[in-house]
């Protein structure tokens, strides 16, 4: 602030409009050149007049109190006068710099991310594997190396904005001159124009192509798992940095193994005689067939747990368990001899007439089925 308008009028900063007016009239009668021809008085009269022009206008006074002024000698001269050196444009410039200028924007833009689906088998999900995937993507144009111009040429400075990437326009309003800034319509804000576009990419700096990538799939993945491959997405416009690639996995159902988190569940049908007398049965695991012992007197729904035979943990060490649910098969289509033997067996056990047994303790068939499948 070149001078203090309030001090020039001899009033306080919270002076009322009437106090400002009375102070000016008093000083004008004292300093006016027609009354006082002294050169020093004449200069002071100019300062007093400039101060009054500012402080008597509520809008100008408010702007002056915010600190925007060219000094009393400038007399403000309205928002478009010397005091603001361009009026509202200077006000915007004081806050944003260069009338809100942002400068030219880069032609290089980051490429979009991409996502592709990939279906694998349960065994592959357990062991992990490398899989080649093919995708349509954008790569840097080999002809112009991303510059977007024909060989031997380069982007030229825009003649309209002179490389600034934006143009300004001035409009008069009741508040004075208003300066607005917008992207240059000739270069779209880049500050340069491509007079001779590359014939292969039409000035975009990238071309579409089909690529094959090798994806490393860790053991333990599940349906819905997304693998993140940074920088393997499409290249950006103008040869900008690549986006990222995401591979979303879908695991096919296994014929006999059902996944429950890191655990696996399978069901085995056991003949009634084998369940009664006990036996050994091969079950399918991720590593191949494995024998399990079926204890004599095994009931339908009982579970045999093989520790560590489930899915490997994707985050952490070890693996889940394999739960083998044993279903006891009741024989059907008996011939006469078989039926006679079973009737004799029932007679020996006093089971000619079966009595219902209700499992109120929660430890029977239904609870075993619930536990096997992770129920609550």
Explain this structure to me?
This protein has helices at residues 5-9, 17-31, 39-55, 58-65, 88-96, 122-127, 272-277, 336-348, 365-372; strands spanning 114-120, 129-140, 156-157, 166-173, 176-183, 192-193, 206-217, 226-229, 245-251, 258-260, 263-271, 279-285, 288-294, 303-306, 322-329. The protein is α+β, with helices and mostly antiparallel strands and 376 residues long. It has three domains: 5-85, Orthogonal Bundle (Helix Hairpins); 114-251, Chaperone, DNAj Protein, Chain A, CATH 2.10.230; 258-372, Urease metallochaperone UreE, N-terminal domain (HSP40/DNAj peptide-binding domain), CATH 2.60.260.20. The chain has a four-stranded mixed sheet. The longest helix has 17 residues, at 39-55. It is elongated, with a radius of gyration of 44 Å. The two termini are 77 Å apart. Mean pLDDT is 83; it is low at 70-101.
């Amino acid at each position: 602030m070149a001078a203090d308008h309030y001090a020039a009028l001899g009033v306080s900063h919270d002076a009322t409009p009437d106090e400002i007016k009375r102070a000016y009239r008093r000083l004008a009668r004292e300093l006016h050149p027609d009354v006082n021809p002294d050169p020093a008085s004449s200069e002071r009269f100019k300062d007093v007049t400039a101060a009054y022009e500012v402080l008597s206008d509520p809008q100008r006074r408010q702007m002056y109190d915010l600190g925007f002024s060219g000094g009393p000698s400038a007399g403000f001269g309205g928002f478009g006068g010397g005091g603001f050196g361009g009026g509202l444009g200077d006000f915007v410039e004081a806050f944003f710099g260069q009338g809100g200028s942002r400068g030219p924007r880069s032609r290089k833009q980051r490429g979009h991310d991409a996502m592709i689906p990939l279906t694998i088998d349960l065994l592959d999900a357990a062991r992990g594997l490398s899989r080649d995937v093919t995708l349509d993507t954008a790569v840097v144009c080999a002809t112009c190396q991303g510059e977007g111009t024909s060989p031997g040429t380069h982007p030229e400075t825009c003649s309209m904005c002179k490389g600034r990437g934006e143009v300004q326009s001035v409009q008069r309003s009741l508040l004075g001159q208003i300066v607005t800034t917008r992207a240059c319509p000739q270069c779209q804000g880049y500050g340069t124009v491509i007079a001779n576009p590359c014939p292969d990419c039409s000035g975009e700096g990238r071309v579409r192509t089909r690529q094959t990538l090798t994806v490393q799939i860790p053991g333990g993945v599940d349906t819905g798992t997304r693998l993140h491959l940074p920088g393997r997405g499409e290249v950006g416009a103008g040869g900008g940095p690549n986006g990222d690639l995401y591979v979303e996995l879908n695991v096919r159902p296994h014929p006999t193994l059902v996944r429950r988190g890191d655990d696996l569940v399978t069901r085995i049908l056991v003949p009634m005689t084998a369940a009664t007398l006990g036996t050994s049965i091969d079950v399918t695991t991720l590593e191949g067939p494995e024998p399990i012992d079926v204890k004599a007197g095994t009931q339908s729904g009982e579970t045999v747990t093989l520790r560590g035979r489930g899915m490997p943990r994707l985050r952490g060490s070890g693996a889940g368990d394999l739960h083998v649910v044993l279903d006891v098969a009741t024989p059907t289509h008996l011939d006469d001899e078989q039926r006679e033997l079973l009737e004799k067996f029932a007679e020996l056990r006093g089971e000619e007439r079966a009595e219902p047994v209700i499992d109120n303790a929660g430890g029977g068939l239904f609870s075993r089925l619930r536990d096997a499948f992770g129920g609550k």
